[in-house]
Each structure stands twice: as structure tokens, then as C-alpha cells.
Design brief:
mainly alpha
Length: 223
Amino acid sequence: MPTALPIERPIPAPGPVDTSPISLTPATGDDLDPIWKAVVPETRTRGNDIHLPISLAYAERLCDAFPGADRQLVRVAIQLHDTGWGRVDEERILAEGFSGDWRKAEIRFEHERQGCVIAREVLPPLGYDGAFVHEVCAIIDGHDTRKEAYSLEDALVRDADRLWRFDHAGIALASGWFRMDPAVYSDRLEAEIIPELLTAPAVAMATATLDRSRALLKTAVIR
């Protein structure tokens, strides 16, 4: 059952906050391996085979910080949230999803809808019940286009989805999608994406990771 979303922003955490490099704490366990195997084709679009595992690792860190959240719901929702990109036209992804008023692009709504279709396809045969699948889809549907999070689990998925962008791997991929150099894209992360984060641990992780990425990529000089 999703946990009610606290009113305070950014949401403070009762648990530990790990701001070390995400490569030090990859996602744990093999219980999600059957889902990974079921969505391999959908991971081959838009860098999902990099984005989704890194986002899952961040989601587990956020669940450590918020032990009251439904950890399994968060993990499965973040694992599947962007698989819908694999069911839409890849040329439209770059042409519409990363230019102009990209947050309102129809293709972003379409990838959310397709992500729910995929969740309903792959989860029940793997033993997940209807109520759980419904909760996963409620998070996937709107994770990019809805302004508000409706539960703590929803907030953690949204933050994990954004946190990967601050890692140097995320900057390398996403700066190209937005046709920005790494320095300009890093500035955008600081100015636009950090204020969108909903939890205090995510803000701390994003800030620490961005500092490391900027130092590594020499963005103060190469701009």
C-alpha cells in the first residue's frame, strides 16, 4: 500500500543518506532478474540499459533513507518506468521529447501509457498480483508529465528517475539528447532539476554527485 506523502518539502528522511558515488552501491539481489529478462528489448532504446539500472540503484538508496516506504513497489516501478520508450518511434523521441516544450510533448504521455502496457504484460506471469500491478502503473502513468507526486513511493521513483542525470554517465547521454555540451547541461541540472527534487536525500545526492561530475568533466574550463 502506498505511503501518504508528507507535506514538508524537501521531505526529510528518517534513515541514512548515502552521497557516495552510485557505482559503489549497485542495486542488490537477483529477485528482479526475471523482470529484467522480460524487458530486454525495451532497454535497448534511449539508453534505458544504462538509465534504468542506475536509477534502480538510486531508488534503493532512497528506500534506505525512507524505510517506511514500500520498497518493492519503488524498485519495480523505477525498473519499468521508462520501458515505454521502447514501444514508440525512436526518431520522434529525439525530435519531440527533447526539444521545444519537451515536458508537454505528446510522445512523453505515450511512453508512460506504453510503460503501463508493458507492466501489465510482464508482471502477472511473474507472480505479481493485480493490486500491485495497479500501484506500479499508477506511478508510471504521469512520472514525467504529472507535476505532483501522490505518495511517498511515487516521490521516490520521481527522484530516482532524475538522480541518474547527475552521474557522469547520465550527463554523457542526456547532454547529447538535449543538444547541449556537458558544461551547459550541468548548469541546467543545477538550475532546473535540483529544485524539482522532492526529498532531502535526493537533493543531497544530486548536489554531491554534480560536484564530482563537474570536477571529472572539467566543466569549469571546457565551456
